[in-house]
């Protein structure tokens, strides 16, 4: 079966854009920081796309909740996610959205989402209100996720990194978002978080910002003695095990991350070809980033066909070889209600 681990949905009452045209949200510096696509609020359109492209189910997350400090807004998003699951049996899987920097509120809402709403994971941004993901203030969030057996999906922050050199040419979204994912990946590893919480599962979007292409450099600079940083505060951190252990056995990745929607088959497949050569197949799940990176059902179908044509590893990834490692009861979620497990793999 084909499970799309990155689909975006914004409840209609939270959608702030033009209902008839694609627009963009600008920050206080005039930088585009989020695409306002009417398809975000159109779940029927999601289903039509999936039917056309052969996708069995989509994992839903909401950009308004990636770094949302307001509990009421998080609860609204989560309730709408559950409604989507109920209204379209077997087609959607919801993720929890929580005020991650408010430990008590986040813990209560994560438990509600895991127990009452039946969500298998929780989503947060690659930075939260200016804090790195290894910040001490986030340790309670990570412990709660591990205790509840919720996997954590890390999406790029829904704003532009505070670096003026990115304030032109849409560089904040083009490059800054991926840089934020790269930084979050290394900080999570070097902080010892994965050693502290051995059952924690984390899915990084976009092949962790294309982290595989930097592994040679990353491995080199992890040699602290060689580069003179072993005794330097904040720069000599090392995890307990070799770096590749975390990249190959602890972190998960999705294959979204190309920019579209045009040329999804060509550019998307090329992105996946590089990614699967650089990170472990066993840790990689399929994702489209619908309706942001790719919006047209024919484009999604073309993307899937082009990725499958890359070879057996790519076909295995598309057809869910790693999906149940993030959602262990996936067959029940998709098959029990719909009665059509596996339709997308034909």
Summarize the structure.
This protein has helices at about 45-55, 70-85, 105-115, 140-145, 170-190, 195, 205-210, 215-220, 245-250, 265-280, 295-310, 310-320, 325, 330-340, and strands at about 5-10, 25, 30-35, 55-60, 90-95, 120-125, 150-155, 200-205, 250-255, 285.
Sequence-ordered SSE layout with sheet pairings:
Blueprint lengths: L2 E6 L14 E4 L5 E5 L6 H11 L3 E5 L9 H17 L4 E6 L5 H14 L4 E5 L13 H9 L3 E5 L15 H20 L2 H4 L5 E3 L1 H5 L4 H7 L21 H8 E4 L9 H15 L5 E2 L11 H12 L3 H7 L4 H4 L3 H9 L8
Parallel strand pairs: 1-4, 4-5, 5-6, 6-7, 7-8, 8-9, 9-10
Antiparallel strand pairs: 2-3
- Domain module count: 1
* Count of β-strands: 10
CATH fold-level name? TIM Barrel
Treating each run of at least 4 consecutive H or I residues as one helix, how many helices? 14
Overall, the morphology is globular
Describe this structure in words.
The chain is of the alpha/beta class. It has helices at residues 43-53, 71-87, 103-116, 139-147, 171-190, 193-196, 206-210, 215-221, 243-250, 264-278, 297-308, 312-318, 323-326, 330-338, and strands spanning 3-8, 23-26, 32-36, 57-61, 92-97, 121-125, 151-155, 202-204, 251-254, 284-285. It has an eight-stranded parallel beta sheet.
Please describe the structure with a list of short key phrases separated by commas or semicolons.
single chain, about 350 residues, alpha/beta, TIM Barrel, eight-stranded parallel sheet, two-stranded antiparallel ribbon, 14 helices
């Amino acid at each position: 079966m084909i499970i799309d681990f990155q689909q975006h949905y914004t409840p209609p009452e939270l959608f702030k854009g033009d209902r008839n045209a694609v627009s963009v949200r600008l920050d206080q510096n005039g930088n585009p920081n989020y695409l306002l696509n009417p398809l975000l609020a159109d779940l029927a359109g999601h289903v039509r796309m999936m039917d056309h492209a052969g996708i069995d189910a989509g994992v839903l997350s909401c950009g308004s909740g990636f770094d949302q400090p307001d509990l009421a807004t998080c609860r609204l998003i989560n309730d709408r996610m559950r409604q989507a699951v109920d209204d379209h049996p077997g087609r959607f899987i919801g993720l929890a959205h929580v005020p991650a920097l408010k430990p008590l509120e986040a813990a209560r809402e994560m438990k509600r989402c895991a127990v009452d709403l039946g969500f298998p994971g929780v989503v947060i941004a690659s930075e939260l209100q200016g804090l790195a993901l290894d910040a001490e203030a986030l340790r309670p969030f990570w412990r709660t996720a591990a205790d509840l057996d919720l996997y954590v999906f890390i999406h790029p922050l829904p704003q532009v990194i505070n670096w003026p050199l990115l304030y032109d040419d849409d560089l904040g979204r083009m490059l800054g978002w991926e840089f934020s994912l790269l930084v979050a990946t290394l900080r999570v590893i070097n902080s010892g978080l994965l050693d502290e919480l051995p059952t924690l599962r984390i899915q990084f979007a976009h092949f962790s910002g294309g982290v595989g292409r930097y592994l040679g450099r990353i491995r080199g600079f992890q040699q602290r003695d060689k580069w003179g940083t072993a005794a330097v505060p904040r720069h000599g951190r090392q995890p307990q095990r070799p770096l590749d252990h975390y990249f190959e056995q602890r972190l998960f990745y999705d294959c979204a991350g190309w920019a579209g929607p045009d040329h999804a088959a060509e550019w998307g497949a090329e992105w996946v070809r590089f990614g699967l050569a650089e990170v472990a197949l066993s840790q990689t799940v399929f994702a489209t980033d619908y309706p942001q990176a790719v919006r047209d059902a024919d484009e999604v179908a073309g993307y899937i066909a082009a990725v499958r044509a890359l070879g057996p590893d790519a076909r295995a990834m598309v057809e869910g070889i790693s999906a149940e490692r993030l959602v262990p009861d996936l067959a029940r979620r998709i098959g029990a209600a719909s009665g059509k497990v596996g339709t997308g793999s034909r």
